[in-house]
């Protein structure tokens, strides 16, 4: 029978039989014996079709003492019916079989799928029997043992009475409660609140051997991960239907050979180290229809591509590293992968999370909260949030952010700050995820140097709006020395409003843009977009990147773009990473408002010869190395305060720049290993980010727990994102009481920070020298 067909509707109408004092509605195969059984019983019984399947049956039993006897008889007779169905299902699919089985009211099945249909009905009747038994138990409790369902007053579960009151008033607000067996009775409330959620104590009369505690962790038995070089499976998983997905797949294909080469190199470098194969879900929230997906329609119209570049590279890195990957691009897929109950997200997951790690973004995190309910809090240590501009600890801690003015539309998730993963290593409190740029071989590098056009400049700005607002003056200076090229999107009927001297190529495919950059001497930025991938691609193709200096620096305090972002970071140029980690001669940062300085910079660029350059951390091998280290070592990142402080620690507070070594601190399981730790005390008002960088190190937030040492310093602790630090006013040390507020970025003129710095690998600031061992 096909659900919704005309024949099925006729059959249902004919099979709607009303008896007094009960009625029954059966969808599926009707058996004379089943109908005879029900017509001979008292009480009131109702079975209704649910969901998409015509064979899904739900039972509802109403009544008191009389219903108990009725339900017992139904429960007993169901076994007889199942046995009869089992014997029928073993019959051959013949005309004899067809004659024996008929739907009540003369509706006949086609014989081709007879056995399968009988099996489906048998399964549903079995489910019906289980449900009847549950209702019987509830009926017995309510009728003869109502004291067993009195709301407990247990000091260990102080919220239980209030939760029961809430359930009484609101249990119909979300279908997930009925999914877990809630039927409006106090017994069902207590069962739910003690076995699905954890607000009430377990009921003594319940069989707890069949229930798995919702707070028990799930431990995966991992196999060994093996590097992959075939990307065909990944390409199939990414899917189709959106231009954003097509862009990502084109990128994956174009870089396939470089990923394969990088995998072989890293495999040799790791020397057969055991690598756990993780079960990983990637949910790209910003591309879901539920988030609005403003990116996909703009892919071919000059819209931002940086996020899609990064997500394509993340997917490829996880696949190449050999992990078991699932990809979600819709809320429906997310629900299916997580196994969330139907409804509006009020109920938690009862089983273990089926993934070791979940990579998502802020949009996806919000969607997970809506559909996972209370489970998100329990499982959030598995989450990694791809966060372009970073989230500082003061904004991440919900209560602290609310009380101290750091609350924004983002942040406030109470994660460990290292669970946020950025596009560039600008926020050491977070983990640096990054992306990749194409790597040239030596032959390609020589060819580029030989064919450079010394007076050719390409402007970084695909949208016509970027060319407005005071760009004319320095473009005129540039035009005096160089031929200016643009890649501004435009429609045929409406050319973009750019200066007449600009040779506009329109929006170019990636391989054509690469060819243009290989010829150009200069790649010039307008000040926006901030921190995109294009400058690194230009530098990798032998261009010098010229960018504006910001004075005062841009931040959430003075610039609309950063307002509301969960960071207080000050941006001193369009691309701080290029300025700080690459620098001259590949990168020049000047004041565009100073025409003399700008003119001088153009002349210097024309005199300077550079080779194509790409930092190791933005190669395929560099990204694989970094992501591998995170996956294998950031295992317990969610429990920031879980480790005990180890041993005494020497801290040279009196000296401004004295550096202390943690040679007497041991923690064998620490990562990064403590051999990388260097202690530094900042200047007044200086952050640990700046203090460590000034000494040639990187601030390492994972080491705060080892230097936040009360036994060594004999001081009190408090909740403040500046701590641990030395108070200039009080002339005393203060320790951090809340581990989620350990912050490299925090600074105050009243404090000198105690900073845990570390060394780093050449070309890979995310990892210390011993971090791969």
TrEMBL record:
Coarse class of the protein's main subcellular location: Golgi
Keyword Transmembrane among UniProt keywords: yes
Keyword Cytoplasm included in the entry's annotation: no
Chemical reaction(s) catalysed: N(4)-{beta-D-GlcNAc-(1->2)-[beta-D-GlcNAc-(1->4)]-alpha-D-Man-(1->3)-[beta-D-GlcNAc-(1->2)-alpha-D-Man-(1->6)]-beta-D-Man-(1->4)-beta-D-GlcNAc-(1->4)-beta-D-GlcNAc}-L-asparaginyl-[protein] + UDP-N-acetyl-alpha-D-glucosamine = N(4)-{beta-D-GlcNAc-(1->2)-[beta-D-GlcNAc-(1->4)]-alpha-D-Man-(1->3)-[beta-D-GlcNAc-(1->2)-[beta-D-GlcNAc-(1->6)]-alpha-D-Man-(1->6)]-beta-D-Man-(1->4)-beta-D-GlcNAc-(1->4)-beta-D-GlcNAc}-L-asparaginyl-[protein] + UDP + H(+)
Biological processes per GO annotation: protein N-linked glycosylation
EC id: 2.4.1.155
Pathway involvement of the protein, from the record: Protein modification; protein glycosylation
Annotated GO MF terms: alpha-1,6-mannosylglycoprotein 6-beta-N-acetylglucosaminyltransferase activity
Domain of life according to the entry: Eukaryota
Pfam families in alphabetical order: Glyco_transf_18
UniProt entry keywords in alphabetical sequence: Glycoprotein, Glycosyltransferase, Golgi apparatus, Membrane, Signal-anchor, Transferase, Transmembrane, Transmembrane helix
Similarity comment text for this entry: Belongs to the glycosyltransferase 18 family.
Name recorded for this polypeptide: alpha-1,6-mannosyl-glycoprotein 6-beta-N-acetylglucosaminyltransferase
């Amino acid at each position: 029978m096909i659900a919704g067909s005309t024949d099925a509707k006729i059959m249902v109408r004919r099979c709607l039989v009303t008896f007094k004092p009960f009625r029954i509605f059966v969808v599926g195969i009707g058996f004379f014996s089943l109908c005879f059984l029900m017509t001979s019983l008292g009480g009131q019984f109702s079975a209704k079709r649910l969901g998409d399947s015509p064979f899904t049956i739900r039972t509802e039993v109403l009544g008191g003492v009389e219903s108990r006897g009725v339900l017992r008889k139904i429960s007993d007779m169901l076994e007889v019916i199942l046995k009869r169905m089992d014997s029928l299902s073993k019959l051959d699919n013949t005309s004899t079989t067809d004659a024996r089985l008929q739907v009540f009211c003369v509706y006949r099945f086609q014989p081709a799928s007879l056995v399968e249909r009988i099996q489906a009905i048998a399964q549903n009747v079995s489910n019906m029997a289980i449900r009847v038994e549950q209702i019987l138990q509830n009926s017995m409790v309510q009728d003869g043992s109502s004291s067993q369902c009195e709301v407990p007053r247990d000091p260990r579960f102080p919220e239980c009475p209030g939760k029961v009151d809430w359930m009484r008033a609101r249990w119909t607000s979300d279908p997930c409660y009925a999914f877990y067996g809630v039927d409006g009775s106090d017994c069902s409330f207590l069962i739910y609140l003690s076995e699905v959620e954890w607000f009430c104590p377990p009921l003594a009369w319940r069989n707890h051997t069949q229930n798995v505690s919702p707070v028990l962790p799930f431990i995966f038995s991992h196999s060994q991960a093996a590097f992959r070089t075939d990307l065909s499976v990944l390409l199939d998983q990414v899917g189709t239907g959106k231009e954003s997905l097509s862009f990502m797949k084109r990128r994956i294909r174009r870089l396939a050979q470089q990923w394969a080469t990088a995998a072989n190199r890293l495999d040799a470098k790791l020397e057969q180290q055991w690598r756990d194969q993780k079960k990983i879900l990637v949910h790209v929230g910003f591309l879901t229809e539920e988030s609005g997906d403003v990116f996909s329609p703009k892919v071919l119209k000059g819209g931002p591509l940086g996020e899609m570049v990064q997500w394509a590279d993340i997917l490829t890195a996880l696949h190449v590293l050999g992990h078991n990957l699932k990809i979600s691009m819709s809320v429906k897929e997310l629900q299916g992968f997580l196994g969330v109950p139907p409804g509006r997200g009020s109920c938690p997951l009862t089983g273990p999370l089926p993934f070791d790690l979940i990579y998502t973004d802020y949009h996806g995190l919000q969607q997970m909260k809506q559909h996972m309910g209370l489970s998100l809090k329990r499982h959030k240590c598995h989450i990694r949030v791809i966060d372009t501009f970073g989230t500082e600890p003061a904004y991440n801690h919900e209560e602290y952010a609310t009380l101290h003015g750091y609350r924004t539309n983002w942040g406030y998730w109470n994660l460990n700050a290292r669970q946020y993963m950025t596009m560039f290593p600008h926020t050491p409190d977070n983990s640096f995820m990054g992306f990749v740029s194409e790597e040239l071989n030596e032959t390609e590098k020589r060819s580029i140097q030989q064919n450079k056009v010394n007076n050719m400049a390409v402007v970084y700005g695909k949208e016509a709006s970027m060319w407005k607002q005071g760009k004319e003056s320095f473009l005129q200076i540039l035009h005096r020395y160089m031929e200016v090229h643009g890649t501004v999107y435009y429609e045929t009927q409406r050319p973009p409003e750019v200066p007449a001297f600009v040779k506009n190529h329109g929006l170019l495919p990636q391989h054509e843009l690469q060819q243009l950059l290989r010829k150009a001497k200069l790649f010039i930025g307008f000040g926006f977009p901030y921190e995109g991938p294009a400058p690194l691609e230009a530098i990798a193709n032998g261009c010098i990147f010229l960018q504006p200096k910001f004075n005062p620096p841009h931040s959430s305090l003075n610039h609309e773009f950063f307002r509301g972002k969960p960071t207080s970071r000050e941006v001193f140029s369009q691309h701080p990473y290029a300025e700080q980690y690459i620098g001259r001669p590949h990168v020049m940062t000047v004041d565009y408002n100073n025409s003399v300085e700008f003119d001088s910079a153009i002349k210097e660029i024309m005199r300077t010869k550079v080779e194509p350059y790409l930092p190791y951390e933005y190669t395929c091998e560099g990204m694989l190395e970094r992501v591998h280290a995170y996956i294998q070592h950031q295992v317990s990142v969610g429990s920031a305060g879980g480790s005990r402080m180890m041993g005494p620690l020497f801290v040279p507070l009196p000296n401004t720049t004295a550096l202390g070594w943690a040679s007497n601190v041991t923690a064998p399981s620490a990562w990064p290993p403590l051999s990388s730790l260097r202690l530094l005390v900042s200047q007044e008002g200086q952050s640990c980010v700046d203090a460590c960088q000034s000494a040639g190190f990187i601030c390492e937030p994972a080491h705060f727990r080892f230097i936040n040492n009360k036994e060594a310093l004999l001081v009190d602790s408090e909740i403040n994102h500046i701590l641990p630090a030395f108070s200039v006013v009080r002339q005393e040390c203060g320790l951090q009481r809340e581990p989620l507020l350990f912050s490299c970025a925090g600074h105050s003129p009243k404090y000198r920070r105690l900073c845990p710095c570390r060394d780093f690998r050449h070309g890979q600031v995310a990892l210390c020298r011993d971090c791969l061992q």
